[in-house]
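debug: dumping io for the single-chain case to check the tokenizer round-trip. Nothing else runs in this session.
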Amino acid sequence: MSAPTRKRRWLTICAITASAALVATPAGAAPGKGKKPFGARVLAQLAAARDTSIGAVSPRAKAEDDDGNEADEIAEGADQYAEARTSPGVVAPGAYGAAWTGLTNLPRTGGGWRHITGLPYDSDDSRYRDIDSNSSGGSGDVTGRMAAIAADDDGYVYAGSAGGGVWRSQRGGGHWKPISDELPSQSTGALALDGAGRLWLGTGEATTNADAYLGSGVYVLSHPHHGTFSSRSRVGGDELESTTIHELRFGGGKVWAATSAGVWSHSTKTLKGAWKLEYAPNPDYLPGGSKDDDPDAAYKNIANDIAIDPKDPSKVVLAVGWRSGDDYNGFYTRVNGTWTRITSGFGDLPTDADNVGNVTFARSADGSRYYAVDQSPEQLNTNPDSGLEGVFVSKSGSPAGPWTKIADYKGLAGSGSALTTAGYMPGVQAWYNQFLTVDPSDPEHVYAGLEEVYETKDGGSTWSTVGPYWNFTFSCWSIDPAKQTGDCDQTTHSDQHGVAIGRYHGKSFVYVGNDGGVYKRPVHGSQDASGHATDWTSLNDGTIDTLQYYSVGIGKDLDHGGVSVTGGLQDNGQSILRGDDKVMGSNFGGDGGDTLTDPANGCDIAEEYVYLAIQVTQNCAVNDGSWTTDPAKATSYNVAPADNATGEARFIAPLAADMKSSSTWIAGGRHVWVQTHGYAIRSGDEWKSVYDLGAGRTATAVAASGGKVYAAWCGPCNNQGFARGISVGNEDGTGWHDIALPVDGTVPNRYLSGFAVDPKNADHVFLAVNGFSRHWTEGPGAGVGHVFESTDAGTTWKDISANLPDVPTNSAIVTPNGGIAVATDLGVVYRAPGRTKWQRVGSLPAVAVLQLKLSPDGSTLYAATHGRGIHTIKVRDLG
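debug: decoded output
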């Protein structure tokens, strides 16, 4: 969950697949709609509401005072993630598939990965109630984002994660086992059980956010209580590779798939044979079409859901449309065999393109009711409070309607919601957060998910917020470290994506999946006087680790022995694992970016938020919450350099410590910043600008050793005029110069993502280059290669990629024995000292590794994966 001071997260389509094409769709992009479609998110008001409730003003809020416009931050975070992998051009289909094949065919190093974050992660850990923590918010134990949920009546629950694959529980939740590790894509779009009890998996997450990965198609598990998914269980051919899949629906002997490339169907009786394209509104933009290379192609055929009439499966309604708006948005049905837009007779549910965006359907088991949630592009573009058009019911039981509105954002805000402040109300992210389900035993008992979980027991006449966003704004809340969240009951994590109803030991439960994992409560559960559920249970027991790390930091744990391990996470703050911990805690909230940890003292920590907003602590951010009544008792400090205030830094900006001095830090925005007070820094004024990269340029990577600094930059950073470069100089501000990097393939004209400096020689440096080589990237100067070496401080470079598969690389590190390890979007590779060829390290699933770090003594390599937690391996075993 985000930091108390404002709600920010990375949101876009940045589509990446382990088996298909990469398509980047920046959040602000929409054909004909301009680059920033979102209304203002005046989240400072939300911060003020919480500050008022606790009687103190956060120093972080003061230091980061801006217009609170989350829309700009969403777009920037989205663009950054996409740009790294696509600029300067368009990536062709098949890139990740070829990369995965190449990686799995590499020879292996010795040793194996050890998973160290496979234990509960308590977001309410009472040890860490400092000023920038969300502890006491009420989410309890969390893990990474869950995109889809399925459950049966035998106690089996299936959870599909954003980047860590599908997991199974046979005990009504908890005690999880991964069941899709053999697949080339670990990104889940949809999970569904058919009438025969088979489990269907649609790969490719469709939440249109910054770290959503495309998939490799649809798979089926015939006996889901046992066994695992395999590549042999794929349905059809390669028609659905390189797509995201929003929903899988069944009817008339078919399975229907709502994808980013239109609506497709396949027989459920035979799994062979090609998928049939039922409808694509703009087929010229599909792969192989005359406009498939158009920059807007990824937006032109987005399907969100399919509604099938239970009384007549030949009657089908398609919900089609890009969330930010396009002319093709709308509902479609077959008329005389031709898919035709519905323009009338629908009742309250809009049919015009401006008010049909992301849509989710659900029908009752008895066929008497159909329900729908609709997100409106017009509301998204113009309403600062919400993008929700409404929740609707068709009492005829037919998706043809007529439909009646039964909820809007104002009504939901009055149902016990925590989101009652202008600028952030229910449905503000309805394009990202949606689920809907009906109690099989009661057609008027409905659960709806947006940022929060809502329940109606009377078909929508009244609603309760049974899963509020958090508990901070309620009178029952208290920061008392003796309690999880004062006198409030546990809620769920925010941002809902998946839902299912199942039975365990004869009792019905509702299971919800969100940015914090999986939660359950009885279908007929209890509520307090405010309508909040009193019986949520977190199912994130540590056996399921889908945490999405961006970074990792390691330092000696002087109090407990061993090491302290921290890491920045997507929407789950920063985790901290002390030497003797059985449960991880969360000492900072929000989207965690980079992490610096003093190797000599693991409680000296710097945590990056966004735009170089940096917080520092020297006690692991241990705090009992007394800062709420005495601000002087806060033990975390905002120390952002000036580029934070001017917005001249990347959303997640580079931050590093000098390899020879942990008290010297380098940060990159438009300027290269240096500060020499280490973890004792208390003010952003202590940073010194040692070099101006130039107007329009922002740093993408920084590194330093013994006073020498390397800074990579881009500007512009998108496909329109993409440029990149390297600047080198000294920490004292002397000797700065730009390296000549002509667009001739010497160093590709692609995103420069990381440096690895030889600890024995600061002039010896390696460069990691993101994106794909020109075989896959259609852009000027894309070049070839992913790892380059310089022995003269960057003046000249040599491509040392050799047998390395053509896969985006994110960071690199030189090991104490002179080897080099590289983090890629599909795992880790290693080149032993004195060798020229690369080997695959261990056998991680097809998961992105974003950062590598060494333990304080250099003996252990740590890998921050974006979907399967943190893993370690002994350097001596690499060979």
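debug: round-trip ok. Helices lie at 44-54, 59-63, 70-86, 95-104, 377-382, 409-413, 642-646.
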